Amino acid sequence: MKKNSRGTSPHRTRHLMIYTFLLILVLLYFASRQQRLTMEGQQKVEDAKKQVSVLELKKTKEKPSPDSGDALVLEQEEMWSLILTNESHPVPENINIQLKKIDGTEESVDERVYGPLMKMLAEMRQQGMDPIVCSGYRTKEKQTELYQQQIQEFIDQGHPEKEAEELAKKEVSVPQSGEHRLGLAVDIYSGGHLALDVGFADTPEGIWLREHASDYGFILRYEQGKENQTGINYEPWHFRYVGVKAAQYMKEHGLCLEEFYLDQGLYG
Ligand SMILES: [Zn+2]
Q1: What are phi and psi of 241, to 5 degrees?
Q2: 49 and 135 share a domain?
Q3: Is 106 assigned a catalytic role?
Q4: Please, which residues have CB less than 5 A from ligand 1, an ion?
Q5: 177 close to 90: Cβ distance less than 8 angstroms
Q6: Are 95 and 167 found together in one domain?
Q7: Span from the CA of 86 to the centroid of ligand 1 (angstroms)
Q8: Which of 1, 24, 181, 204 gives a 20 to 30 Å CA spacing to 113?
């Protein structure tokens, strides 16, 4: 009792202080909780917005606006000509290609490409040019031989083996990948320029092909400035068949095949 009567005031003060302190703690706790919930809420709203925009993108992709003038309708039966092959997309091992030999050469192409190729070459000859097909379909064995040769060439130039291999991949397709393996591509040079080098781009044949190959369904497959997408250095002599519609679309929009795949949503 003595204690009570003498200590009431300091005790009360102490209790008041403790209660006040606890109250502040509780208030602080709720304040921070509220803030966290608000932030989580905002994040959810942001996420929802993102999801909506992705869906909208997909929707636009699936149904191109009919008045955009950009819509390209690809039929299932023409997809054979649009097969993508590059280092990360090898040609299926069991692919069955019906070949047709190109007259006056040792080269062959997929028989479905033969007609358009002959028409294109005939038109060039008609105009006084001298196009020569120096490479068409390649077996995996032939590809391996060319690939090893290219690596050796870089090693002979003094590059370490690993580096030589990386450099070779930009010059020739790795075995079992690439257009020649499909029989859908040809290398063309000219009677006046018997070399597969960038100089071909400035020959009458090189200039004409760049401009008109798409009218026959061919694209300049390894274009300058597209090396990062195709993985292959500029090759003004290498033409790949993709069909007239797709070739003209790619030329008009400046797309390489990899970009066309993205543009048309063709990646599986
Ligand atoms: Zn080629």
Answers
A1: -80, 130
A2: no
A3: no
A4: 187, 238
A5: yes
A6: yes
A7: 12
A8: 204
Please state the φ and ψ torsions of residue 219, each to the nearest 5 degrees. Answer: -120, 150
Q: How many Å apart are CA 149 and CA 41, to the nearest integer?
A: 61
pLDDT of residue 107: 96
Q: Which of 179, 223, 235, 258 is catalytic?
A: 235
Domain assignment of residue 205, given as a range: 79-263
Residue with tokens 């390209």: 72
- For the record, the structure tokens of 176 come out as 């079992």
DSSP class per residue in 33-55: HHHHHHHHHHHHHHHHHHHHHHH
Across the strands, what pairs with 138? Answer: none
Higher pLDDT, 157 or 56: 157
244 versus 30: the higher-pLDDT residue is 244
CA angle 170, 174, 179 (to 5 degrees): 90
Residue 226 sits at φ, ψ, to 5 deg, of -110, 15
Residue at which a domain ends, from 12, 31, 63: 63
Residue 155 forms part of a structural domain: yes
Which two tokens mark 109? 């192409």
Q: Measured in angstroms, how far is the CA atom of residue 198 from the centroid of ligand 1? A: 13
The tally of domains found in the chain comes to 2
Cα separation, 200 vs 87, whole angstroms: 25
The domain boundary, picked from 16, 33, 63, lies at 63
Q: Domain check: are 105 and 29 in the same one?
A: no
Query: In this predicted structure, what is the pLDDT of residue 63?
Result: 42
The answer to whether the CB of 89 falls within 8 A of the CB of 177 is: yes
